Amino acid sequence: MDCKRIQELLITDYMDGEASAEIRQQVKAHLAVCAQCREFEQVLRQKVAAPFENLEAVKPPETVWQGIKEVITAESEAQEPVPQQVPVTIQRMFDFLRQSFAVRRPAFALSTAFSILLVVFLFAQGPVRRQMAVNDYIQEQSTIMLSLNTPVNGDLDQEINFGTSIERYLF
Amino acid sequence: MEAIPRELIEQAQAGDIEAFEKIYRAASGLVYSVALRVTGNRQEAEEITQDVFVKIYRSIRDFRFESSFKTWAYRIAMNTALNAYKRMARDMHRREDFDTVIETRAADTDTVKELVGQEERQQRETLLESLLTLLNPDQRACIVLREIEGLSYEEIAQVLRVNINTVRSRLKRAREMLLAHTGTLT
After folding, report:
1. How close B92 gets to chain A, by Cα (Å)?
2. Which of A105, A109, B18, B49 sits in a 20 to 30 Å window from B60, CA-based?
């Protein structure tokens, strides 16, 4: 590696501990023989890295928390009605179900619509089929009556009476 | 920042303000530090810290543990601080009035000088602020997260939502800028 590449590594990965062991070894080997890059590294450490080292930890004054507490307490009280706290696990379950249905909503809606149409169709078909069955039965009985050579002008109530309920209903 | 237990976050998600206060105690230092280093203004940093934790409280129910809480808090803090810094810079540029910041820093200087044995600390703080003002907001964000907060390139990338090469490039340019000005700063 040439000096330009070494100095690029010094100013980024090497300085920040992000370089691999192999790269670090190559940089160290180069620094051992290159006075210019050694000087560059020293300036970098003194002028760029040192001002940021061992800084005292800073903390916000207590008034900041008081301000936050006032805001969030007021917001909590403003939420009406006060909701019963749903356990997080249950909330997660609802979220999961909501997401699941959100993804499959088109398919779910289509299948629901199809089911409703099917039920309506079947119910609508019931009375029609029953009416058709009655009509068929009447037609069939009429054909039988005619085939028995029943007098056309006769009194059906008197001439044909086998005493069954269907005959009483029909004639 | 000390680790925040998952149970504590879940309690805060359920609306427990005491649990939220514990989270604040654990994370307020990093938020304030980022805000202070990015803006260079204590009063602004305090307002940003308050703003950040109100935002965290409002959105903590949406936190899904997909990233670490620390990364999430850093992200909100950095975005809020950068927005505040850009607004301050815009206002200063518009009004050509730099007195506010200079006065703020002067007031801070006076306060620190009153404390016995704090002169060196003050000098370092002044040098630090001078160095950071040389950088643009993106470079400043990377330097603060790397040099002051000690985040890795990957963590910085997650906080700023950029790729690692962008982080590396911004750090390189920032340090080149600092090197170019070292003669005038010492």
Report:
1. 25
2. A105
Chain B interface includes A169 (CB < 8 A): no
User: Are the beta carbons of B118 and B112 closer than 8 angstroms?
Assistant: yes
Asked whether the beta carbons of residue B153 and residue A69 sit closer than 8 angstroms, the reply is no
Q: Say yes or no for a CB contact (<8 Å) between B172 and A72.
A: no
Cis check: omega of the bond before A106, within 30 degrees of 0? no
Q: Which residues on B lie below 8 Å from A59 (Cβ)?
A: 28-29, 32
The CATH code for residues B1-97 is 1.10.1740.10
Q: Check A73 against B147: CB less than 8 A apart.
A: no
pLDDT (tens digit, 9 = 90+) per residue, B17-68?
A: 999 999 999 999 999 999 999 998 899 999 999 999 999 999 998 888 888 8
Domain ranges of chain B: 1-97
Query: pTM score, two decimals?
Result: 0.64
Q: For residue A51, what is the DSSP state?
A: G
The predicted pLDDT at position B184 comes to 44
Q: What tokens appear for B44 in the block?
A: 């602004």
Taking residues B75-99, report their average pLDDT: 79
Find the range with the poorest average confidence among A98-102, B10-14, B141-145, B160-164: A98-102
DSSP category for residue A52? G
Contacts of B46 in chain A (CB under 8 A): 60-61, 63-64
Nearest to residue A65, comparing CAs of B165, B58, B22? B22
Q: CA triplet A12, A18, A22: central angle to 5 degrees? A: 105
Nearest to A51 among B53, B58, B127 (CB): B127
Q: What angle do CA A162, A165, A167 make, to 5 degrees?
A: 55
Numbers of helices and strands, H then E, in chain A: 7, 0
For residues B6 and A32, is the Cβ–Cβ distance under 8 A? Answer: no
H-run or E-run covering A168: helix A165-170
> What tokens does B135 get?
């950088």
Say whether residue B134 is in contact with chain A using an 8 A CB cutoff: no
